[in-house]
Amino acid sequence: SSIRNGMIRNCGVAFDFQNFNVSCFIEDVSTFLVVQFGVFHRCFYMSLRNCSARGPRDISKPAFTFTGDNNLISLLRVTATTASGFLFEGGTTSVSLISCSCEGASGSALAFRDDCLGVVIDSGYWEAVQGTVFDFTRAKVCSVSFRGNFLNYCDTIMNDGGASSGSTLMGVFDDTNYIANIGAT
After folding, report:
1. Which of 23, 107, 158, 170 is the most buried (most CB within 10 A)?
2. Predicted TM-score of the model (pTM)
3. What does the alpha-carbon distance between residue 63 and residue 142 come to, in Å, rounded to a whole number?
4. For 152, left (φ over 0), alpha (ψ -120 to 50), or beta?
5. What Cα–Cα distance (Å) separates residue 89 from each residue in 65, 113, 123, 185?
6. What confidence tens digit (pLDDT) does each residue in 147-173 have?
7. How large is the greatest C-alpha to C-alpha distance in the chain, in angstroms?
8. pLDDT tens, 67-113?
9. Is the dihedral of CA 143, 42, 139, 47 positive or negative?
10. 125 φ/ψ sector (left φ>0, alpha ψ -120 to 50, else beta)
11. 114 and 90 in contact (C-beta within 8 Å)?
């Protein structure tokens, strides 16, 4: 299945997919006044390209939600201008977020729950996030690489929940990431 070119307006969830599989993609689709662009459950080898979500500000409903054993997900130029941007939970393996962004979030720009292995966050644009940009407070074992990201006017860059959270975070946050005007942490 493939979905290409369009604008979806004024609804709760634009896409609610289960088992969206090999070679399936959504490309050049925008949502406006939509609570969630997509809820993707048990999706494998799928991609979102040139997609954007602008919607109501509901911190409990991330624009892009991936639940339950998602593998090999490719997000390329996917943007969220909402209260919460992206959520991965229930087991995530081999995910790339290339040139993705979240602006104006009051919750998390990008949150991880449970195990998340082989995640690459490259060349992202994260701005005016009043909450946490990268939220690992409810994560378990995570291996993540952060490269070439631009973070500007954000309160907290990363939160692993501290020693009592049980999170094990491995990976690289190298000097190619540019950080400016950070508020809290």
Report:
1. 107
2. 0.94
3. 22
4. beta
5. 8, 4, 23, 24
6. 999 999 999 999 998 888 888 999 999
7. 45
8. 998 899 999 999 999 999 999 999 999 999 999 999 999 999 999 99
9. positive
10. beta
11. yes
Q: Which amino acid is at 54?
A: R
The residue whose two tokens read 């094990």 is 168
Token pair listed for 11 = 């609804």
At position 30, the amino acid (one-letter code) is: S
- Residue 23 pairs in a beta bridge with none
Is residue 124 helix, strand or coil?
coil
11/16 Cα distance (integer angstroms): 12
Judge contact between 60 and 32, C-beta under 8 A: no
Contact status, residue 132 vs residue 110, Cβ threshold 8 Å: no
